């Protein structure tokens, strides 16, 4: 009797570990579905996640001066490494940050290239970045804040910088 129970348990364990690929599945209405039809109905997640901090973000310009050098500032955030790279709108930048569920603080020992960009106030952008101590998501937009004051908004989609006509 014990041998029969043992064989039953082994058979059940083997059946539970059988891969489900190439099996047919019955719906509640007794129609047969194949793996291919299951794949076709599985929703595909969006490629640009707008609910996590990691990845590439582009500044949503508010003033023409936000993209005065002709480039959009970017942040490429690596949450696992607590590092970021990007562009100030003029120069490339790289640094580290501290993070909690709702707070982010960029380390002031950031490294930047030193290209000159006449007409662009890069120092204002960098000072604003160093003031950040909180973040939130607002309908897929990353909002960087100082306490309750919104400092900048970032999106996953690059927006073309507006050009000022000088006539």
Protein described:
This protein has three helices and eleven strands. It has a domain at 55-155: Lipocalin (Beta Barrel), CATH 2.40.128.270. The chain is globular and about 40 Å long. It is an alpha+beta fold and 167 residues long. The chain has helices at 2-16, 35-41, 122-131; strands at residues 25-26, 32-33, 55-59, 74-78, 83-87, 92-99, 104-106, 111-112, 134-138, 141-146, 149-155.
Tag the structure with descriptive keywords.
9-stranded antiparallel β-sheet, two-stranded antiparallel sheet, 19% helix, alpha+beta, 3 helices, Lipocalin, single chain
In short:
This protein is an alpha+beta fold and 167 residues long. It is built from 3 helices and 11 strands; from the N terminus they run H-E-E-H-E-E-E-E-E-E-H-E-E-E. It has a domain at 55-155: Beta Barrel (Lipocalin).
The helix tally amounts to 3
Q: Which word captures the global form?
A: globular
Q: H/E series, N to C? A: HEEHEEEEEEHEEE
What separation lies between the terminal Cα atoms?
Answer: 98 Å
Instruction: Give a quick account of the main beta sheet: strands, pairing sense, barrel closure.
Output: 9 strands, antiparallel
* Class derived from helix and strand content: alpha+beta
Regions with little confidence, pLDDT below 50 for 5+ residues = 1-47
In the CATH scheme, the class of the domain at 55-155 would be: Mainly Beta
Oligomer: single chain
| Helix residue percentage | 10-25%
Percentage of residues in strands? 25-35%
Average pLDDT number: 75
In the CATH classification, which architecture of the domain at 55-155 applies?
Answer: Beta Barrel
């Amino acid at each position: 009797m014990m041998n029969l129970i043992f064989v039953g348990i082994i058979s059940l364990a083997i059946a539970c570990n059988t891969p489900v690929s190439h099996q047919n599945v019955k719906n509640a209405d007794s129609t047969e579905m194949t793996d291919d039809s299951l794949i076709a109905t599985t929703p595909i997640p969006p490629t640009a996640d707008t609910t996590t901090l990691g990845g590439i973000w582009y500044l949503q310009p508010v003033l023409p001066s936000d993209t005065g050098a002709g480039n959009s500032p970017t942040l490429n955030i690596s949450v696992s490494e607590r590092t970021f790279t990007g562009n100030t709108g003029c120069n490339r930048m790289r640094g580290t940050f501290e993070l909690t569920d709702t707070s982010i603080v960029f380390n002031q020992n950031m490294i930047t290239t030193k290209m000159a960009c006449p007409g662009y106030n890069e120092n204002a952008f960098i000072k604003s970045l160093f003031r950040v101590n909180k973040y939130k998501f607002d309908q897929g937009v990353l909002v960087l804040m100082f306490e309750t004051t919104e400092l900048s908004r970032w999106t996953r989609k690059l927006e073309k910088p507006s050009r000022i006509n000088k006539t």
